[in-house]
Amino acid sequence: MIEIEVLRFDREKDKEPYFKKYKIEKKYKMKILDALIAINENYNDNLSFRSSCRAGQCGSCALKMNGEVVLACKSEIKDKSKIEPLDFPVIKDLIVDKTKIEEKVANMGLFLETDDKDKNNRNNENNENNEYKEYKEYNKDNDDIENNEINDNKVNENENNESNENKEIDENKNKKFKDLKKSPETNNIKLDGCGCPSIIENEECMDTKKVRSCIECYSCLSVCPVIKETKEFAGPYFMRYISKFDFDPRDIGERTKESIEEGLYYCTSCGKCGEICPKEINSFGDAIEKLRAIANMKDLGPLEAHKEVKELISKTGRSVEELDESFIKTISKERTEKEKAFKNSENQNKSKKGKIAVFTGCMIDYRLQNVGFALIDVLKKNGIEVDVPEDQICCGSPMLRTGQTEIVESLVLKNKDALSDYDTIITMCAGCGATLKNDYPKYGVNLNVMDISEFLAKNLDTEKMKDLNLKVTYHDPCHLNRGQGIKEEPREILNNIKGVEFIEMEKPDQCCGAGGGVRAAKPEIAFGLGKKKAEMVEKLDVDAVISICPFCQYNIQDALNKEGLDNIKVMNILELLKMSYDDK
């Protein structure tokens, strides 16, 4: 037997939703949907929920289990689980009201737009050539070609009558159609405006393919932090919807302008929508980021603040201005030859670690130099020496996320020259690490990159630490947790630091609002999301918030300060580690 709780609510009679407990017999690999059905069978409780296909293809059964969005028909039920509806207005129990979403889809009129000439020709019966007639006749007795989109309009049977001579399909043509069905190069047969099939090569439709598998569960809209903050952003579902037409080579609609009107530059690139999508659609990477690049090519974007960052990178190699002397310049001047951590160092622990380079990123080099020095000190305490290559520059992430891709390759190649001789590259910024790991291979640059938490989790000498007597919580940077799959390593480190009490906040992985160019161009959104994070922190009575992202660090600290919580400090995990090793 297992016990589960289900959030019950009937808007016709209940004032507030409430959890109700149920005990049911758990069968082997029992799904959530099976459990809900069992509740109604055993309790006769009229629990309301949606379901249809039971195969993860219709999206109707999406809900939350223990706070995470899942499909009820695909996810296994767990003991002590809490089942809740998606974050939409509730009609009854687990059934939510999707009317506004469906109305918006209808009002936006999202459909494939081809040229007017083709539209006029669509109803012209003379435009159906004999080859297409043969093609349709062939497909009556054969499976539809994979990925075809054939019009539902039926051609009048009388108009399709052919003479007895023409009814015999030439064997060569029959073979051609069979080959066409099997061919990986031409497996996307589409109808052009006149109703005739047009062959679209794979390379022409790869982008639109990635975003066409949506099953309209609307889970992405349920979890998007930005649409809960502003009505100016339509959300990932609609960005994906627009992109599938914009990426289609046949479409002539003004999709770029449409995407901007629907809030293209409000997305923080947090990746939560992709994490929970049952069809694994990465709405930011596969849709929004590419729409931003198209907007840039058409001179319709990005926003002015984003353009200023590009100008700065082009001039200085950094995305922020140098307020104090950079970490790299300072360490180059101040460290003795014995301690120096540059290319001419002969003191590295090559036998155990190989050649290790530190990729600082813009913020740590120009704004948070103390984090860079903390890294050097912590590594030294653990007997590890590193290089800090002087020729490194911005990783390119700010350009990629805002669609200004034209200068990215030059940044990648310069960093390749600076880093390619090293066995391991250590990063201290979630965004830099995600870019080096995920984007650089697209430019043919493959480096062994490790976040500092990955690197240190198994290499810390805890005997040298002193007791700190601090209570801390941890914020998961989106580009570390979802961007790199790193969640447990920082927690492992925090739990190993002497005298540190680690307390989880309510939603540690909820976006703070700093990413995707939003902090620069839409600061009100960044502050709104940062405020929500500050409210979570306030409940914990902690001394510090720990993270591994300079942008998160700035944004959460600003939010705490504005909320009158400036006694709580936001720190990089390296700063906390340095404190634990000081004077020991």
UniProtKB/TrEMBL annotation:
Coiled-coil features, chain-numbered ranges: none
InterPro entries on file: 2Fe-2S_ferredoxin-like_sf (IPR036010), 2Fe-2S_ferredoxin-type (IPR001041), 2Fe2S_fd_BS (IPR006058), 4Fe4S_Fe-S-bd (IPR017896), 4Fe4S_Fe_S_CS (IPR017900), Beta-grasp_dom_sf (IPR012675), Cys_rich_dom (IPR004017), Helical_ferredxn (IPR009051)
GO process terms (BP): tricarboxylic acid cycle
Pfam families: CCG, Fer2_3, Fer4_8
Residue span(s) of domain 4Fe-4S ferredoxin-type: 256-287
Residue ranges annotated for the 2Fe-2S ferredoxin-type domain, each copy included: 2-89
Gene3D superfamilies: 3.10.20.30, Alpha-helical ferredoxin
Superkingdom to which the source organism belongs: Archaea
GO molecular function: 2 iron, 2 sulfur cluster binding; 4 iron, 4 sulfur cluster binding; electron transfer activity; metal ion binding; oxidoreductase activity
Compositional bias of kind Basic and acidic residues: 130-142, 164-174
Region of interest: Disordered: 115-178
PANTHER family: GLYCOLATE OXIDASE IRON-SULFUR SUBUNIT
Name of this protein: Thiol:fumarate reductase, subunit B
Taxonomic classification: Archaea, Methanobacteriati, Methanobacteriota, Methanomada group, Methanobacteria
